[in-house]
Specification:
The complex is a heterodimer of chains A (about 600) and B (about 290).
Chain A lengths: L1 H25 L5 E6 L3 E3 L4 E8 L15 E5 L4 E9 L2 E16 L3 E5 L3 E4 L2 E4 L3 E6 L7 E7 L3 E3 L3 E10 L3 E2 L3 E2 L2 H5 L13 H11 L5 E6 L5 E14 L4 E2 L6 E12 L9 E12 L1 E2 L3 E3 L17 E8 L2 E3 L3 E10 L15 H6 E2 L7 E4 L2 E10 L6 E2 L3 E6 L4 E6 L3 E2 L1 E3 L37 H4 L9 H29 L1 H19 L5 H20 L8 H10 L4 H20 L6 H17 L3
Parallel strand pairs in A: 2-10, 11-21, 12-22, 24-33
Antiparallel strand pairs in A: 1-3, 3-6, 4-6, 5-6, 7-10, 8-9, 11-13, 13-17, 14-15, 16-17, 18-22, 19-20, 23-25, 25-28, 26-28, 27-28, 29-32, 30-31
Chain B lengths: L1 H14 L4 H19 L12 H21 L4 H20 L5 H13 L3 H14 L4 H12 L9 H9 L1 H4 L3 H24 L6 H26 L3 E4 L27 E8 L2 E5 L5 E5 L3 E3 L1
Antiparallel strand pairs in B: 1-2, 1-5, 2-3, 3-4
Helix pairs in contact in B: 1-2, 3-4, 4-5, 5-6, 6-7, 10-11
Classes of the chains: A alpha+beta (about 600), B alpha+beta (about 290).
Amino acid sequence: MQNAERRMSKTAIATALLMGALGASAFARAADLDVQVSSRETQVGVPIVLQVAIQNGRDNGSPVLPQIPNVKVRSRGGPSRSSQTTIINGTMKSSVSLTYQYELTPQKEGRFTIPPITLKSDGQTLKSQPITVVVSKSETGDLLFVEIKGDRKRLYVGESLGVKLQIWLRPFTDRNYGKLDASSMWSCIDLRGSDWGSFAEPLQNILNQQGQWRGREVLRKDSQGQERSYYLYEVERTLQVDRPGQLSPEDINVLVTYPTRLGRSNDFFSMGRLAILSHMQISAQAQVEPIEVLPVPTKGRPADYTGAVGQYKIEASAKPTTVAVGDPITLTLSISGTSNLQQLPAPAVNKCSELNASFRVPSDPLAGEVVGEAKQFAVSIRAKSDSVKEIPAIPFTYFDPAQEKFVTVKSEPIPLKVSPASKLALSQIVDATGQRAPVANRLTESTGGILANYTDMDEVLSQQAFEPGVVTWLLLALPPISFVVSWTVQRRSERLRTDVGFARKRRARRDAISKLRHAEAASTGEAAAAAASAIGQYVADRCNVPTGGMTRSAVLEQLRTRGASADIVDQVDGLLEECESIHYAGTGTRSAAELLSAAVSCIDRLERERI
Amino acid sequence: MMGRKLLAVSYKLWARKCAPGACHFHIAVAALIACSVLTPRARATQCELTLQQKVQVLNEGLQAFDKGSSLRQANPTEAARDFREAADKFQLLADSGLKNGKLLYDLGNAWLESGQVGKAILNYRRAQQLTPDDGRLTANLRYARTLRRNQLPESGERAFLQTLFFWHHSTSTRGRFMLGVALYVVFWLLLIARNFMPRFRWRYVLVPCALGWLALAASVAVSLVGQSTRQSGVVLANDVTVRKGNGEGFEPQFKEHLYEGVEFDVLEKRTDWLHIELPDGKDGWIAARDAELI
């Protein structure tokens, strides 16, 4: 058992080594070109698939597909890449292939040959063999008709034609499951495989809006003349006809995967729904009903006819209408009508004799702009003289296909006021001798036109809105406040100067306190005298009486007379009595500092009294 | 609330005992911050542009205008398109909240050159509110008025008042306000000086000063109140029927229609209708969609 395991492990290791050794050589193989078709037989309008596969190629270019007459070629996108590795009897083979696919749709019955396809790879040129394909007539029969119909059978060059692409598709009826509805039959149309020509865009719009192409059931005669039921699918567009003759059919080819058998699907996800079990491909090219495009007649064509076909009317407007001779006037011509305005040619204003007689008209062709339901053409004209009174009616000639004749419509004349231009006198012109012309002493301003823009950034981009804020109003209050303050100060100082009593009163406390401070270093007796003197002086200043006669009784009398409160009178009385005792009798309990402090206290209390 | 807090901070700084220089600096900074908070901000606008964007848009508008001017003779259609583009650029700047008389003047020029007389006059009138003493504006507005299809005479009373109060109509509100403030400050300074020099005959300078700033204050007040109450407008549509009442069912007031550029004063507004007074003193009703207010 152990020996067998050892042998197996050795074999595995050897195999791995061999694979590694051979691996490097596996990719060193020559390139190979393989061309195949999905079928060697097809029908008109039914595509086959051409597959070009390149194996083991390096530095490949794309295959060059030659032109094939009466066959439409369409690529199915970029190449697909695949790789394969095989090990047979210990030999490993690895290959990488690039595959290109093309749809070839024959347009004509017969046969066509796909020429050899060349490819350059690894410095070599590879070439395939030609392939012949047989094309038989489509087996569409009466199952499918494709027609293009116009809203008219006859029209003129320059007119618009409404065309309708109609697809008539015979509904499939199964014996067991009945007839498929219009929606189911619509799903059989190969939208991607069909060529829709100029109807591709309107068809896409229908699909975007409705999600599907809705058809309706109608009756139609088949090729035997028998009326049968068909589903009709229609899409419309407007065609601008620019060439006479029969309307040429477009290359429209509709491909349908027509069912041949219905049944219940066995697919788990379909849950037994009805499905198309087998089908065949049919196609039909669009048939155009005869529509004749007539050229606009040359007989009787007016000289100012510029190619408009339809029914139109013209309006004119001018700005300004008050000008001097030679000033530009913008004449705007607005033309509205039935046909496509984008293609509408400009009126030939330079061929309007009445206009050209009175105005200078530029010869450049007019550029127009569609504005709303009209096309506007603007031209700048200048009056030639001040005798011009109006802009004449501007004619516009068109060919009316309904009446089959040329019709000329005119705008309304526009009244003008033309003033003479200022002229140079001959004497003002410098003559050939080079003598200097006389100088003009006066300049007369002209009235027309506007003055230049402002272009300075700082000027134009500065905010000029006038919005005074609260701060502005507060600042405006400062001057009157300043005035009130200065007036108050001025009045006060004046009063101090003129009103002695007021001045004494204002400085009473200050002087009394100053006196008391000077007595701080004095003895008790001197402090008592100073305290009594200070209080007497204070009361005299407050009451505006002479200071000299202020004895103790006089002080008290003044205080009582002035309405001082009884307790402050008593306090003052008590302090003055004590000061007298100390000053005259030398008796007292308080020190100098205490006396002075008591005096200050009395003065402060008196300061608060209204005396 | 924020303003009060800032003022409280200012007061605390003032009350705190600090070096005088530092005190004054703090107070100035606080006052400046309070100013920025208390000053009413510009009205909210649809689009706010940076200065760089404004410069760029203005340059583009001026270039489009110049291009239109150069093409006016050779290709009027292309020129009209360029003028419209210039108008759009200038209008963008105006819509960004920029109130500038010269900008509105340029906008009026662009509309006039593109053929829109009504919009031109409308913007000239708006510019006049900001820079009524602009000579170019006066000239262009006068010219634009000559292009109107309706040339209505001005009533005598209106002309008389315009002549009498020419100084009110020909100067900007800001100019009158600044002059009034100057006279106002001089007046109070003279009053303060009078306290110190009472013997000088101050009434010969004080009275004219007082009359001056009072008249200017009244003029500014009339302008500010007038802007918010009495409105004017310009007709922008053509073939406008003036009716006897505010509805299509009312009979026309006049046989003739109004065309773009006609200026009017608004007497009354009702939903989609305006009761207007025309320059000749006549009145009627027009649909609000046919006009725009200045």
